[in-house]
Amino acid sequence: MKSSLSWLLPAILSAVSYMAGEQQVPDDKLAAAESAFAKLQPELERAQAQWEKTDARFAIIDWNITRDLVIQKRLAGGNLFDGKRAIIAEIEHDESADLGSHDKFTLSAWILPTALSGVIVTRGRDVTESEGYRIYLKDGRVQVNLVKNWRNDALRVEAERVVDLDRWHNVTATYDGSGTSGGLRVYVDGQPQKLKINSGNLHSSFESKEPLRIGGGGGAGNGFHGRIRLVRIYRTVLTPDEVAVLSTDTPVTTLVQIPPEKRTAAESLKIRTYFLERAAPAHIREAWQRVCELLSQQG
User: Fold this and answer.
1) Using CB atoms within 10 A of its CB, is residue 81 exposed (0-12), middle (13-18) or buried (19+)?
2) What pLDDT does 7 receive?
3) How far apart are CA 176 and CA 227, in angstroms?
4) Of 28, 51, 247, 255, which has the fewest beta carbons less than 10 angstroms from its beta carbon?
5) 281, 280, 277, 259: which is closest to 268 by C-alpha?
6) Distance spanning both ends of the chain, measured CA to CA
7) What is the reported pLDDT for 94?
8) DSSP labels for 50-119?
9) 235: closest CA among 93, 71, 1?
10) What is the side-by-side strand order in the sheet with 132-138?
């Protein structure tokens, strides 16, 4: 790991550029905003280094990516699931979980599985092969299903990697609203997964008014075994770097105690993103937000 944080600027700008999609904001405005932010890099490094020595101990303990976060459900103690029970998530604004084929979104959960198969999060009827969306384990592999009709109107993919039992994992899936299997990505512990396409033909919307269920909802015998401690839903496609940060559960207050040269890329990105969002001097924060705003217009 490099001792200087200068390598983080391309990573940060790459992350926000990932948000751009296919449309484009005027090139001159975007170029000017990125140039203005890049010129602040030396000052940003000095300010962050000073903050890490002083005020970083006051960082929010449970902070993580907040961009377009609409649902965050913490399950105290990492709720234990026995394959029979499910938690129906109470949502203040139910429409925030109304996801369909043209919506961009990210589903993420922290799980400790004790069996190879079981539903993690689902919104659809409590039967097998129902319409709606779900993320679950099947024979140890993370599967994501966006379904109108199971056989001929669905996107269904699964990761090739088998997850280890009896240890915590972050599983995350992103979807770009394109209706194609290429618009689905799956990550395990922040790492993008090679996917097997089980069905790649989605023509209709899979919206459902069923409750959002955690740990169940896929019909009898499909409940989750193990623990689930946190579920998040974002109304955007998180970038690979953001997913890496999301899978880094160690608090910022702990990460800043690690010497910069010994931090992983994800740990460094988590600290830098927190600093830019919460603690950077106002003019640096405003320059950063300007870049993000211009690129978000294209989302």
Assistant:
1) buried
2) 45
3) 29
4) 28
5) 259
6) 33
7) 59
8) HHHHTGGGGS-TT----TTEEEEEEEEEEEEEESS--EEPP-SSGGGG---TT--EEEEEEEEESSS-EE
9) 71
10) 87-88, 212-214, 118-124, 132-138, 141-149, 153-159, 195-201
Q: How far apart are CA 99 and CA 103, in angstroms?
A: 6
CA distance readout (Å), 66 to 55, 72, 165, 269: 21, 10, 29, 14
The pTM of the full predicted model, rounded to 2 decimals, is 0.87
Mean pLDDT by 10 residues, the chain (299 residues): 45 55 62 91 95 92 89 83 87 74 94 96 90 94 95 94 96 95 96 96 90 89 93 93 93 94 94 94 94 70
Q: Can you give the pLDDT at residue 47?
A: 96
The whole-number pLDDT of residue 96 equals 73
Burial 37-62 (b: 16+ CB within 10 A, else e): beebeeebbebbeebbeeebeebeee
Do β-strands 212-214 and 118-124 pair in parallel, antiparallel, or remain unpaired? antiparallel
Asked if 197 contacts 216 with a C-beta cutoff of 8 angstroms, the reply is no
Which amino acid, 117?
A: S
pLDDT, position 183: 94
Domain boundaries, the chain: 8-63+250-296, 69-237
| Both tokens assigned to 72 | 């965050």
CATH topology classification for 69-237: Jelly Rolls (2.60.120)
Cβ-count burial of 287 within 10 angstroms (0-12 exposed, 13-18 middle, 19+ buried)? buried
